[in-house]
Amino acid sequence: MLVILFNFFFAVQYPANLRLYRIQLCRCLPAAEKQRCWVHKTANVLDKLPKSIQSSAKSLIHDIYRAETERDARSAYQRFQDRYQAKYPKAVENLKKDEASLFTFYHYPAEHWQHIRSTNVIESAFSTVRLPTAKTRGQGTMLTTLSMVFKLAERAQLRWQRLRGHQLITKVFEGVKFINGIEETLAA
Fold it and tell me: Residues 6 or more apart from 87 whose CB is under 8 A from it?
């Protein structure tokens, strides 16, 4: 696991390594579900649209990932496609290419959704580590690099907030199923 975290640090520090990190993570955790970051996906889709309609498109995208149920989200997803497919197929294609991994968060507790939908939580946690290591240019040996990363992360964790619904994490690890954010036994 330490190797995965170490590689993640370098993937965050050097974006070219991110693809290699994802490949390694998939090998280590093949059963893990994938969730694309809605913040980055929104930015990528809006980049394919003219500025004049970006605010209305952004509102539609927010309707997708802020929906109460996966069914409502997919309905909003279809509305976005219907509205922009004819004039802006590249924007719609950009959204469609990750469809399978955009709605994964609905299979987890609703309290976790805001943490799962975006990778900004992870990126902000590692921003404390990124800045000093980028300035030092060569950290020397692997041991000194790991020591520096560990100490920086240890210091940064003092400002981290506890995840919403943290008590539900054990249920997720135990394999309890969630439908639209509600435990399956409670939803039935």
Answer: none
What is the model's pLDDT at position 182?
83
CA geometry: angle at 143 spanning 138 and 145, to 5°?
Answer: 35
**Cβ-contact 120, 184 below 8 angstroms:** no
For residue 85, the model assigns a pLDDT of 96
Same domain, 23 and 57: no
Lowest mean pLDDT among 5-19, 24-38, 92-106: 5-19
Burial zone of 71 (CB within 10 Å; 0-12 exposed, 13-18 middle, 19+ buried): exposed
Does one domain contain both 100 and 112? no
Same domain, 114 and 185: yes
Quote the CA–CA distance of 185 and 177 in Å, as a whole number. Answer: 8
Place of tokens 């989200």: 73
Which domain range does residue 71 map to?
A: 38-105
DSSP code at position 188: -
pLDDT attached to residue 1: 37
